[in-house]
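Fold it.
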Amino acid sequence: MIEYIDIFRTISISFLITLILGPIMIPMLKKLKIGQSVRDDGPQTHLKKSGTPTMGGIIIFMALVLTVLTSGMVNKDMYILLISTFGFGLIGFLDDYIKVVKRRSLGLRPHEKLIGQIILAIMLAVYQSSTSMLGTKLIIPFLNNQYLDLGFLYIPFIAFVVVGTVNSVNLTDGLDGLASGVTLIVLSFFALVALNWRQDSVTIFSTALAGACLGFLIHNAHPAKVFMGDTGSMALGGAVSAIAILLNIPLIIPIVGGIYFIEALSVIIQVTSYKLTGKRVFLMSPLHHHFEQKGWKETKVVAVFWTVTVVLCLIGIFSLI
């Protein structure tokens, strides 16, 4: 059984590994000229970020793997969590590599990314439905001990949730420290839930990844020395999705991951409105750019989004009591 000292040790090890890897990996990324390209139509304050090393998600993943594999808590669930994180991170890595190294601005084609994401999502759904005591049942937030049995709809529903979450986290990664900070808070929520439910492997994994995000924030907070890129954002999205699925609470993602949700929704609304009416609802999407265009400083947007996530995670805790 996991004790609080185990959680503290896991977070500390992961944090320190990320802290140490940063000064080693960042110069390497610079030397390889793996730099971020900034969109010309974006906020003018972002133009100075052009050339900042990206693909820093590699640092997060390395710290996660080193911490987890030395935790003594390696089992089937842990392997699934790692495979999900690595699989989605690999899709992001290929996207980054094609954009940054091969200089093909669009990266992987949309259908290529989608196919890979769906395959990984189906793998997660099949594993959980065949190994969990709840089978195809999901815990319903705010309804104590109530379950939703999706039956044959379980796999397509989980695939939809996973793909949606991964791409939403990817959209959230647009400001220094935004995605890493929001995900740190969300992972802390899942770690507390897993600890309370005695899901030891999920607890260790969540705390290890939270520690890695905390360490990465030292390098990624404004002004960022490195960006996580699609390599990191998709890996984090895959991790968050897998954790929620193994805990049978994917329905809580729109609550605790509300920032992810509204970021993706803002893009959908913006594109739909422009195509139908020729008018834009937001000054710019995703939503964090809208607030920047209204005059908010980048650090203020990040701080507000972090605060909102803390509140949403508190609501998430009460929804499971």
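The two ends are 21 Å apart (CA to CA).
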